[in-house]
């Protein structure tokens, strides 16, 4: 859940160890300046996986994001040097008192200690003000500068997974393993009768339902992953996606006994009434998935089972009534 703020209060401001460099909360009023800075650094920012959403989004979506103040404790800071915006630092709340840090700095200002000073101030803010149990980060193997900054701030190496190196700064006993980033694509598959296909699982005595899809393979786009997962999980090919309609806020979940930070994108696809073929399930899916069915909107609204994402009945009703939105709608897990 979020509320909106127009920026008239200026947002939080945090000093750093560098003269004239401060962290000031990014708000809707900063959207134009931030979009300009991002455009000037598009290739530079593209080297960091944390900012794929920014690079692939239009200015309107970015402005919409900055106008929403997350109620989960996440915060977005702009790096301001002498009043000018030169970068960004995010503290992303992914679980109770756990934060992931992500940042980028205008390429013209790299190599001057600004990234270290800004990240140090943000980490201190997380521990001293927000009561963080830990702050963690995941950097791609090629991002040596990012790893060096984290080392200077006292982050401990916490392993490697896929293309990522994991780091953690705990305030007291570590609350758990560092989650592995898991970008994922999901498909809202709607048939000719307006029914939505969902798969089921069961955990702690509760049945939950979710749409087709899964994690990206190395080198895949979200769209490619969505179509591959659809083929593997339903046997359907030749399906056309109508574009990304929802974007999930990050959340920590366990998959195959490993903690992951899920970053999900949802796509809409329509198909005729059909039967699906789940013979393409892998071993983990066969063990985890307990069933599947097509749901009407009325059935979704009436069920006591857990539906993913949160608020699915209302989200789907709006999507089918109004069509795909101009930009992705943020949803909770």
TrEMBL record:
Alphabetized UniProt keyword annotations: Acyltransferase, Hydrolase, Magnesium, Transferase
InterPro entries membership: Acyl_CoA_acyltransferase (IPR016181), GNAT_dom (IPR000182), Nudix_hydrolase (IPR020476), NUDIX_hydrolase-like_dom_sf (IPR015797), NUDIX_hydrolase_CS (IPR020084), NUDIX_hydrolase_dom (IPR000086)
Highest taxon of the lineage: Bacteria
Signal peptide stretch: none
Domain Nudix hydrolase: 180-322
Pfam families from the UniProt entry: Acetyltransf_3, NUDIX
All residue ranges annotated as the N-acetyltransferase domain in the record: 21-185
Entry-linked Gene3D superfamilies: 3.40.630.30, Nucleoside Triphosphate Pyrophosphohydrolase (3.90.79.10)
Top EC category: transferase
Cofactor: Mg(2+)
CDD domains: NUDIX_Hydrolase
GO molecular function, one term: acyltransferase activity
Enzyme Commission number(s): 2.3.1.-
PANTHER family assigned to the protein according to its UniProt record, in alphabetical order: GDP-MANNOSE MANNOSYL HYDROLASE
UniProt similarity note: Belongs to the Nudix hydrolase family.
Name the record gives this protein: GNAT family N-acetyltransferase
Protein's organism: Streptomyces johnsoniae
